[in-house]
Amino acid sequence: MSTGVIIAIVVVVLVIIGLLAFALPRIRERTRLRAQERELQQRRQQAVSAHRDEAGASSHRAEVAERRARIAEQEAARERAEAQLHEERASLHEQGLADDELVPNEDGDAETAADQPGATRSA
Predict the structure, then answer these.
(1) Cβ atoms 121, 100 nearer than 8 A
(2) Domain locations along the chain
């Protein structure tokens, strides 16, 4: 081989080595950045999942609390209705419009119809 060909081969090899020496750090840096981006994406997904799980649990707790509040409201309404029923009965007795409830029944029992469980009034 001639000297020119050997020099050309050496120059080409040196250029390739120079390009590799210049390109390898960039390739490594790009690979490292991609790995960091993947890790960050995984952490984001974990954070999203954790927040959504917590949101679901909070929503469930809120629904349970709302149900309990509705039950308590209905119980309070029932108590108010019962109090109003007793108040109305008291008013009827006060006006003398419910004396038939106070008259002893056939058994000679002097209990009021309001005190008898399951009693119905006859008109």
Answers:
(1) yes
(2) 3-93
| Per-residue tokens: 24 | 């390898």
Averaged over 50-66, what is the pLDDT? 97
Instruction: Give tens-digit pLDDT for 19-55.
Output: 888 888 899 999 999 999 999 999 999 999 999 999 9
* pTM of the predicted structure, to 2 decimals: 0.51
Three-class DSSP labels, the chain: CCHHHHHHHHHHHHHHHHHHHHHHHHHHHHHHHHHHHHHHHHHHHHHHHHHHHHHHHHHHHHHHHHHHHHHHHHHHHHHHHHHHHHHHHHHHHHHCCCHHHHCCCCCCCCCCHHHCCCCCCCC
